[in-house]
Amino acid sequence: MRQSKLFTKTQKTLPKGEESKNAQLLIQAGFIHKEMAGVYSFLPLGKRVMENIMRIIREEMNVIGGQELLLTGLQNPEIWQTSGRWADEAVDIWFKTKLKNDTEIGLSWTHEEPLTALMRNHISSYRDLPVYVYQMQTKFRNELRAKSGIMRTREFIMKDLYSFCKNEEEHKAFYEKAKQAYIKIFDHVGLGHVTYVTMASGGSFAKYSHEFQTLTAAGEDIIYIDEQTKEAVNEEIIADKDLGYDKNKLRKEKAVEVGNIFTLGTKYSEVLGLQYQDDQGNKRPVFMGSYGIGPARVMGTIAELFADEKGLVWPSSVAPFLAHLLCLSDSVEEADALYEQLQSVGIEVLYDDRHGMSAGEKFADADLIGIPWRLVISDKTLASKSAEVKARQSKEIELVPLRELPNYLQSKIS
Ligand code: ATP
Ligand code: MG
């Protein structure tokens, strides 16, 4: 992408009226646009990061047998009345609206009920199980607080997977696979070293569930970490005697829940009548689980954790581009040629081909945007047919011959 054509421009100063660090930086660097409190649009740079995160999630969901679908954003109240979750007293984050004829309908905030009802058309025998489906779909939630930038918004894409199994044993095996898949996902996006599998309350479903909690000062949760086992417990349940934890022996940290996995059991299948016939001819309720990740919350967490005083710093697995090519010379032929060549071998490049900007301005923009590899072509580097290469988070600059750059960068792709 030529930067002269990119419609987003960086801003010289931090945006006003935005308190969270992730949103401040992402707005300043042109990744997102604030529509109103808790509602953000994703601009080309931000969209690319989101797509990378969603691709990484998709890959792992497919590996464990997930099939992608897309459920509706408008929700049928009848199904929710059956489960008792339509009432505002039961769920306080509903956005509801009305049809022309005054019938109330809901905007999607989760999908246990509609999916369970839908599955009645497809599951009737033990031969139809297990089934694992997931989606990347927009959720609307009337969140009370919206002070964490893109980490907690009133409209967001969620990856939600739902599992349908014959019994608890089959469910447990899948739950464990999902847990391992989540560990891989958070490793791959660059958060593995600060993300803890955390014991949490299972709410009204099961006694316990697991959250994936990433350490950050921007987090709204408190977790207690066991240094020996590297496991953690959410503050909500730390006092539970059955768990046998001594709070004083654990490390207390602020964290954000980037994902969670839940055992739902037969709660929804029983109320909504999702049954199957087992191999003895007996009718049984389907045993369910749900598994969520917020890609934008992951993106915001990455922004919070890695940013430095100059701007954003993206891990290469999620970066909007792998390389940021800066042309500081008036003769553009070599930079143009390098741009074409890198793209032809599959390296994604943002090419700062803008005229009339100082080197300092281009460097500042590159630091703010945070692409992993900065390549600088100037009259000086051209004299030795080279480019200056610098990793975003390092101070070291290396002179690399132009013809070696494609291989050099390909070895950095993760
Ligand atoms: P929280 O306790 O932080 O409100 P939750 O328990 O409501 O999260 P789920 O309903 O299980 O979370 O959603 C699954 C995932 O979706 C969460 O782990 C998180 O990554 C993401 N998520 C939840 N709420 C939001 C939000 N308001 N904005 C962005 N992402 C969210
Ligand atoms: Mg919530």
What does this molecule look like?
- The strands form five sheets. The chain has a five-stranded mixed barrel with strand order 9-10-13-11-12. It has a five-stranded mixed beta sheet with strand order 18-17-19-20-21, with helices on both faces.
- It has two domains: 304 residues, 2-Layer Sandwich (BirA Bifunctional Protein, domain 2), CATH 3.30.930; 91 residues, Anticodon-binding domain (Rossmann fold).
- The chain is α+β, with helices and mostly antiparallel strands and 414 residues long.
- Helix 1 crosses helix 7, helix 2 packs antiparallel against helix 5 and helix 2 packs across helix 7.
- A hairpin with a 2-residue loop joins strand 1 and strand 2.
- The model has no long low-confidence stretch (mean pLDDT 96).
- It contains eleven helices and 21 strands.
- The site of adenosine-5'-triphosphate has 16 residues, from strand 8, strand 13, strand 16 and helix 7.
- Adenosine-5'-triphosphate binds next to strand 8, strand 13, strand 16 and helix 7.
